[in-house]
């Protein structure tokens, strides 16, 4: 049966793996739309249509977000030092690679400020420097200069994680004040670079939290949550504390279970939703499908490590949400645009705590089986993507050999 064509502006519930209902692109009116403009909600099918539907729309969207984000930054000394190192490297690479003297990068005045250790804000830049900075942000050039973060679940210590029978961490900090002071003095010992600790209080039995049996779909929901957790830590280079509320909002935008109150019923459905969000215009610059497949490897690794690693990751996720809630209470203008954010964070925190209690009660054999299922779905996704690429290549080769103009006898 032919696909049903929908021409309304209502969002489609279809996915690349289940294209039952589609919407026609509002730009070319020829192809099915797969994406939505984050500013004007126009539906489009490709990058070409995205650029042509409204250049003013896309440019103003990027400019407003960059300026707004910079205006809200309250950097500490450590953040200033990191930015200083990045700007120094950025300028040195521009000096080596640039062939155009008028477009070489930072002015001499700005360079002297940076080298002397003075703080340089966005407003201190010249119009040309602002343009170059925005271009570097949009193209991802600045992110390439940040040292890559090694996820804690890939470290050897993650294989030896263990918790008590009640689910708490085996080693409790005796003097929290001394711990916090030492971490400030030694950036290398910062908690963001270490394995997140487990909970400090014992878990209650799941039977005390709900009167009925836990849903059999919790394994599916766990995959969705773990993927969103790995996604958030990856794009924040492991340091979600630098922007707790921003990290929480990214988490809610990826997770169907935590952000959209979704209830995926199969691993395929959960994986498909996560990959669709990863390949959306908002995050596609991170690497698209290849980045998403790497995140599935992260999920498989966490599941393979067993209950202690899963509890620690969920506990870290709970702290992320709680920090986002505290930041929201500050009442910054940017943070209070949507009144439902607070309720979403509260609901997400309760869901995470419940599933953390449930994970603690499950046998380790369950996680090895779940890891195998996720690995299978990843393979299916890769096969599907490969088949789509081969179809496109075949269509291109056919179009090259087709006679475009035929002589009329």
From TrEMBL:
Classification via InterPro entries: Shq1_C, Znf_HIT, ZNHIT2
Region (Disordered): 177-206
Domain called HIT-type: residue spans: 25-57
Annotated organism of origin: Vitis vinifera
Record-level Gene Ontology MF annotations: zinc ion binding
Record carries keyword Calcium: no
PANTHER family: ZINC FINGER HIT DOMAIN CONTAINING PROTEIN 2 PROTEIN FON -RELATED, ZINC FINGER HIT DOMAIN-CONTAINING PROTEIN 2
Protein name: HIT-type domain-containing protein
Bias (Pro residues): 196-205
Entry keywords, A to Z: Metal-binding, Zinc, Zinc-finger
């Amino acid at each position: 049966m032919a696909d049903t064509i929908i021409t309304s502006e209502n969002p489609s519930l279809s996915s690349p793996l289940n294209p039952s209902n589609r919407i026609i692109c509002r730009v070319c009116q020829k192809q099915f739309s797969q994406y939505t403009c984050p500013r004007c909600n126009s539906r489009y099918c490709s990058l070409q249509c995205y650029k042509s539907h409204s250049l003013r729309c896309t440019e103003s969207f990027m400019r407003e977000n960059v300026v707004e984000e910079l205006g809200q930054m309250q950097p500490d000394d450590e953040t200033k030092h990191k930015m200083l190192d990045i700007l120094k490297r950025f300028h040195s690479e521009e000096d080596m690679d640039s062939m155009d003297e008028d477009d070489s990068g930072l002015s001499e005045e700005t360079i002297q400020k940076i080298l002397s250790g003075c703080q340089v804000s966005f407003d201190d830049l010249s119009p040309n420097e602002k343009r170059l900075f925005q271009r570097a942000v949009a193209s991802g050039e600045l992110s390439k200069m940040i040292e890559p973060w090694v996820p804690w679940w890939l470290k050897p210590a993650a294989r030896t994680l263990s918790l008590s029978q009640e689910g708490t961490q085996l080693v409790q900090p005796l003097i929290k004040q001394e711990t916090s002071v030492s971490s400030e003095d030694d950036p290398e010992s910062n908690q963001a670079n270490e394995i997140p600790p487990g909970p400090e209080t014992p878990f209650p039995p799941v039977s005390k939290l709900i009167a009925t049996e836990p849903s059999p779909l919790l394994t599916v929901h766990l995959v969705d949550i773990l993927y969103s957790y790995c996604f958030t830590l990856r794009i924040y280079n492991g340091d979600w504390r630098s922007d707790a509320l921003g990290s929480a909002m990214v988490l809610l935008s990826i997770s169907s279970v935590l952000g959209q109150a979704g209830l995926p019923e199969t691993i395929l459905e959960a994986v498909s939703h996560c990959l669709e969000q990863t390949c959306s215009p908002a995050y596609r610059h991170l690497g698209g499908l290849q980045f998403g497949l790497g995140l599935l490897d992260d999920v498989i690794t966490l599941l393979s490590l067993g209950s202690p690693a899963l509890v620690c990751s969920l506990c870290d996720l709970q702290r992320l949400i709680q920090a986002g809630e505290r930041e929201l209470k500050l009442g910054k203008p940017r943070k209070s645009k949507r009144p439902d954010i607070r309720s979403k964070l509260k609901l997400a925190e309760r869901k995470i705590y419940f599933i953390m209690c449930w994970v603690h009660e499950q046998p380790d054999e369950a996680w090895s089986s779940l890891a195998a299922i996720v690995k299978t779905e990843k393979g299916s996704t890769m096969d599907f993507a490969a088949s789509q690429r081969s179809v496109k290549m075949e269509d291109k080769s056919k179009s090259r050999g087709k006679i475009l103009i035929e002589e009329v006898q």
